[in-house]
Amino acid sequence: MIEIDPWGVADIKDYTRLFDEFGISRFQEIVDRIEAPYRYMRRDIIVGHRGYEEVLKAMNERTKFAVMSGFMPSGKVHLGGKMVMDEIIWHQRMGGDAFACIADMESHSVRGIPWSKCREIGLNEYILSLVALGFDPDKGHIYFQSGDKRLRDLAFELGKVVNFSELSAIYGFSGDVNISHMISVLVQNADILQPQLLEFGGPKPVVIPVGIDQDPHIRLTRDIASRMRMFRVEKRFDKDQKPYISVREKQAGKEALGAVASRIEGPKKVYEMHIDVFGIEAAEIDRNMQKIEEIVRTVEQEYGGYGFFLPAATYHRFMQGLTGGKMSSSVPESYIALTEPPEEAARKVKRAKTGGRVTVEEQKKLGGLPAQCTVYELMMFHLIDEDAHIKEIFEECKNGKRMCNTCKSEAAELMFSFIKRHHEERERAKDILNGHEIYKQWF
Ligand code: SF4
Predict the structure, then answer these.
(1) Is the CB–ligand 1 distance for residue 370 below 6 Å?
(2) Residue 139, exposed/middle/buried by CB under 10 A (0-12, 13-18, 19+)?
(3) Residue 100: enclosing H or E segment and its boundaries?
(4) What predicted TM-score, i.e. pTM, was given to this entire model?
């Protein structure tokens, strides 16, 4: 049994088991349907997803969708955080309404970080790097959880359909977990659902790009989104195996059910708590279900509901720590922070664990092990965009044509340039953000 703990340190060796144990779908099965897939998508770094098809459909049909993810301000922003930023930015460029949250309530309640520190880290580490990497703050939304009353109100509302036993079963909470920690879970659920509020254009497909360790939050939020719905639309079959559509009222009331019935065209039967819609050809059933879903969502909003889509998620693999094993914030050699001096970052690359053999002769004879090499990983995840180039490095390494010393030097140079450029972009980001709402909010 694989344990997924959102507040622990993830060390997952066999990602394929996640698909079977947690019902996560393989991203490679849908990647061909994406117009210009991002590097992480092309290279199987995003390994899995839940419900991404709806987001993909919206993206391809140029209809509205959103992307949201969050950052817990508890330490330096490093390459792991950059992965989430890259994914938010890519979806924003693909037309998504983008939301980036600084999870200061989580950081304060779970890690005990003082509010002033949360703000400082949130702004100076995360928000600056996010904008420096290409997030457009004028088109998107950046917020601190604690500064967003609408979010906290939504969290309170969602709390009506979640109880302690459930949180305990999902997160292993026992009696000594502080209440604020539990509240921060609801706030994260609200973060995920907030892009679907009327103020942000109403219900729409939303993707949450995260590391695989965040799956418990996603599963819980999908359950909550479903519980908050007033109706359920289902495909059913009659005794002759002919499909029909049934709209089941969950908590909407008779008047709302009547409003739905009045807007559905064609033959139907209205019962006390549901409507059955007949006479639809089997080939047309999915298209009609979609139409009826839209009607139901509109009515839900008219009657004070939310009409939420189930939030989707993409799950990326974790990078190894540069010293081998896990990345750890208490071992600075194991990670590269986006804010550290470029010389320091390059030095860490030169000292990183490789998949090389003990001697040059052995390397020439047996080839290296790029799949176990943290330097190769840095190049594949962050430093080299051309697929042909990364493939060439992989082949040369495996065939014993590439030696670790020169390879590390190349990667160190690329890292130096990347971090140096990123620092320059952070300076530009300060100008972009100067006077921006997020800065005005706190300073
Ligand atoms: S040659 Fe490069 S990719 Fe291969 S093991 Fe050495 S450092 Fe890693």
Answers:
(1) yes
(2) exposed
(3) strand 97-102
(4) 0.92
What pLDDT band is residue 13 in, cutting at 50, 70 and 90? low
Distance 317 CA to ligand 1 centre (A): 20
Tell me the per-residue pLDDT of 398-420, one tens digit each, with 9 for 90 and over.
Answer: 999 999 999 999 999 999 999 99
pLDDT tens for each residue of 69-117: 999 998 899 999 999 999 999 999 999 999 999 999 999 999 999 999 9
Q: What is the 15 CA–ligand 1 centroid distance (Å)?
A: 23
Rounded distance from Cα 262 to ligand 1 centre (Å)? 66
277-287 tens-digit pLDDT: 998 888 899 89
Ligand 1 and 376: CB distance under 6 A:
yes
Structure tokens at 351: 């000292």
Q: Which residue, 400, 392, 397, 395, is CA-closest to 364?
A: 400
Q: Quote the tokens at residue 222.
A: 């999908």
Dmax over CA atoms of the chain, in Å, equals: 80
For a ligand 1 pocket test, name from 358, 374, 402, 410 the mutation site with the most ligand atoms within 8 angstroms of its C-beta.
Answer: 402
